[in-house]
Amino acid sequence: MVYTGGLKSKPFWTRWPSWIIIFIWSLHFVWVFIRPVSLRSPSWDTGLSRPLLQWLDARQQNKIARVEKMRFLEDVLAENQQLRNQIQSLQDQQRRWGQDRESLEGLTQILELQKSTTAQSITAEVIYHTRPQFFGTFIINKGASEGLQIDQPVITTQGVIGRVWSVGSHQSKILPVDAPNIGMAVYLSASKSSGILQGRSNNMAELLYLRSEKSVQTGESIFTSGLDNIYPRGLLVGFVKEIRSEGGASRIFVQLAPRLDQLRYVLVLPHPLPLESLSEPVVQ
Reduced to 3 states, what is the DSSP secondary structure of residue 102? Predict the structure, then answer.
């Protein structure tokens, strides 16, 4: 198909009405100028000019209709874009409200937990973390100015988080319970076996030095025993996830209770009472 002057060419038979109108109008134009004055008739002139005038009027109406249609389409597109922007703004606002609601709920739960523990507990917010790195730690917004000290236990409503590793003036680093260089004295709720929990990263840990491995069951709850003089007794740590036999021995893997990569607020507990320096027994 030939494209000329921005318009697609059409077969001649589809344009014959236009050619007839142009031919009649041309004859009328010539007749108006060469005919004698006595033969001129307004009705005759009007009759010959009417088809051309109607054609021109139709073209003008079509042009006006196209312009109005384009304006209407532009208005619809602009309104559509405005509505999309409003929807996006409402979605962002809803997302912020959801985050604020979750933050408020988490803070409320921590404050309720603080009431049930001790008045010396300190509520802190996690402001930075390096999860899920192998030695991923947390930074909280409380430090020595708020009374924090090294090795204070840190918990949340879901269970034990870890302990204070280093302290600055207004910030502290928390070593999480799944860190490989951390240990914790624990006991199992059902079998009553006690042992040491060692971190294995990625919200996992392993039970070591158990008194009795045969009585351990999958899904069993694990709590702090308090025998390490760091964590008070009875804090939830996690659940037995897998018991794996290797070389005649059993390895017990633990799924930690709290999601360490989704922490917002934590509670720092005070140090337990220090052990007294006891005198040697008197030999009689």
Answer: helix
